[in-house]
Amino acid sequence: MKIVCDADGLIKTNKAGVLAILVQHAEILIGPAVFREAVTEGKARGYADAVTLEQIIQHDVQQQPSPQHPCAARMVQSATLGAGEREALDLYMSEHANAILSDDRGFLTLLGAHQIHYLTPAAVIVALCDWGILTIQGATHALALLRPLIRAEQYHAALADLALLERE
Length: 168
Hints:
By secondary structure, this protein is of the alpha/beta class.
């Protein structure tokens, strides 16, 4: 599976403690603007997790620039997106990726309106559990780490999905 990340998705998945696991089971792609937002600016602001994020990216994440894709350019004409989200959309289209990992509401709304597959950090945790990579207990712990960073409805939906997996 090929997943393109924006900075928000990358940071939150890392804070949940599952990015290092995800990169072992999926091809993760980011562009230079996302690296700048997540790592360079994070380190400049003194965020300790930016160093961890940099280490994961340097070892297991494909960094590549993406030329502006014409379809993406048309989609974002009326949307207000940051450089990382625009870059993620261009990269998704040019690399024919399977999904975009993000937790930016406006971006997710745009992706949904154009029927572009996306994952949220909470959905990644559920998927890793569904794939047998995380236990229910491990997924619940990761979700608890993520809880202060995501909307309540996402958290509760992920808990409900984990409960269904536990019954199977």
